[in-house]
């Protein structure tokens, strides 16, 4: 019986960390808050090509680290975009908590995600955007795979899409791959992401796997 495990979750604790870095007694409420806030941010910043959203809490302070391939679009002129985003995040937190939040406790940091073609989340968003523009899906898959494999550090890639491709009556699944993607090797650095393309004939799911080599833990030297 075949069983599937999320490639990112499988490697947490080996060489990957959590997207939320904190611990609190009211763990349930804070975790729910993180999940809803992260989903809301991804929807709001969908056109900014966000790669990763990390949330770090220290006391009452909440730090939101956003990695994007288009930092200029997010920051805005003179940092106006960051201030606007901070106000909306503050409003969303107050909506989730149903109480006032001190604006000083919210900090937003934006970092540029380099080599967008080697980040699974950005590749998936690029494929979804092209499908929404009604480009031929086979051409999109082929060009995206070629561009990804040409990116430094990528040893293998696999891209899969499913839905009413090309507006067909029945949904189907298409995929393309190059190189190797060893999903069962724990030390293999496999980056995975999924995205949804919203087209006129329905939604199309996009999944991307990128293999970036193996990670070996350095042996710690012990001194007597």
TrEMBL record:
Any one cellular-component term (Gene Ontology): cytosolic small ribosomal subunit
Gene3D superfamilies in the cross-refs: 3.30.300.20, Ribosomal protein S3, C-terminal domain
A Gene Ontology BP annotation from the UniProt entry: translation
Pfam families named among the record's database cross-references: KH_2, Ribosomal_S3_C
GO terms of molecular function: mRNA binding; rRNA binding; structural constituent of ribosome
SMART domains: KH
Keyword line: Ribonucleoprotein, Ribosomal protein, RNA-binding, rRNA-binding
KH type-2 domain span: 37-114
The protein's assembly and partners: Part of the 30S ribosomal subunit. Forms a tight complex with proteins S10 and S14.
NCBIfam families attached to this UniProt entry: rpsC_bact
Family: Belongs to the universal ribosomal protein uS3 family.
Function text: Binds the lower part of the 30S subunit head. Binds mRNA in the 70S ribosome, positioning it for translation.
PANTHER family attached to this UniProt entry: 30S/40S RIBOSOMAL PROTEIN S3, SMALL RIBOSOMAL SUBUNIT PROTEIN US3C
Name of the protein described by the UniProt record: Small ribosomal subunit protein uS3
